[in-house]
Specification:
This protein has helices at about 5-30, 40-50, 55-65, 85-90, 105-120, 135-145, 165-175, 200-210, 225-240, 260, 265-275, 285-300, 300-315; strands at about 70-75, 75-80, 95-100, 125-130, 150-155, 180, 190-195, 215-220, 250-255, 280-285. It has about 325 residues and is α/β, with parallel strands linked by helices. The relative contact order is 0.08.
């Protein structure tokens, strides 16, 4: 192994532990995981991120030594030792309701919102639904009972479907609580929202692949969130506009509930067998793309992996 390759591996490990540290730091300081709560175990973090035991331990050590955010108890586990409520108790609060705290997106979204609100003198109260409508209802009921937020920023749960929590949102409107949706919205209620044009982005990506000679293009899409449906719409619209044949077998679907099973090695193998004749793939997001690239690497399918990594870099440029 050459010196450059050794340095490259060291840089990768550094990036990995820093990514895990940033994710954990945001979870704790935002209050998603509260003071005295047990933090995910080392084995669970290894499985979630696909990192080595040493990388996970390095990140936890940094959380403990530099930030004092966690305390590790021998034989018991790791516990949060930071109380964000004391930091925020004197400032007016804005409720932030997100569907996930994924490692690849949550810290960036939170940091952007937090920096803007802090500048204006507001604190954030964060909750995560894990894309469950019941959890969304529990949070909204708590807000309406407490009445202590100055506004709400919401990422909808299972946004591809009509929302059943209509009575709660009607009460929010009646009380004139400023409410803004991000990333999506619900079709059966009207609120202001800030969204990416998922359909157009997917259309442009598909167009780029077609212009580079691809005709057998597959896709992996999420069907219970609006973003997945819109990205699928852009994909099939572009195929139609350019006269490229659509093949049902090249399209794979998953949802929040079956994500772990569909993105397992067995699930990815089934996807691969259906789509291995494709020369390009459109994939729902970075997280799924990384799962699939790791799977291709383990299979030793380097030609397919190179193609997929090229697509992934294009996707990130949009």
């Amino acid at each position: 192994m050459g010196k450059a390759e050794v340095m490259s591996n060291m840089d990768q490990e550094c990036l990995k532990y820093q990514k895990l540290y940033n994710w954990a730091h945001t979870l704790i300081t935002s209050g998603v995981i509260k003071n005295m709560d047990k933090f995910p175990s080392e084995p669970s973090l290894q499985k979630k991120f696909g990192y080595s035991r040493q990388t996970v331990r390095t990140a936890l050590q940094k959380l403990e030594e530099e930030g004092g955010l966690v305390t590790r108890v021998r034989g018991s586990g790791t516990y949060v030792s930071y109380d964000c409520s004391k930091v925020n108790e004197e400032r007016p609060q804005v409720g932030l309701l997100l569907s996930y705290y994924s490692d690849y997106l949550f810290p960036r979204v939170y940091d952007g919102i937090e920096s803007c609100l802090t500048e204006k003198g507001y604190a954030i109260e964060v909750a995560v639904t894990k894309n469950r409508l019941n959890d969304e209802a529990i949070y909204l009921e708590g807000i309406l009972k407490g009445g202590d937020v100055s506004g709400l920023i919401i990422e909808g749960s299972r946004s591809a479907f009509p929302n059943p929590n209509i009575r709660l949102y009607k009460e929010i409107k009646r009380r004139n609580i400023p409410t803004l949706f991000i990333h999506n919205h619900y079709e059966n209620m009207v609120f202001d929202s800030v969204e990416m044009s998922d359909k157009k982005c997917s259309y442009e990506l598909t167009k780029l692949l077609i212009e580079n000679g691809h005709r057998r293009i597959g896709g992996i899409f999420k069907y219970d969130d609006m973003q997945g449906i819109e990205r699928y719409k852009g994909f099939i619209q572009c195929l139609s506009d350019y006269g490229v044949k659509f093949d049902d077998d090249y399209i794979r679907w998953y949802s929040t509930k079956d994500m772990e099973e569909k993105l397992s090695k067995k699930g990815l193998l089934r996807m691969y067998r259906r789509t291995k004749d494709c020369t390009a793939m459109i994939v729902y997001n970075d997280e799924v793309a990384n799962y699939y690239m790791d799977f291709l690497e383990e299979r030793g399918d380097y030609m397919c992996q190179r193609m997929f990594r090229w697509y992934h870099l294009m996707m990130r440029s949009f």
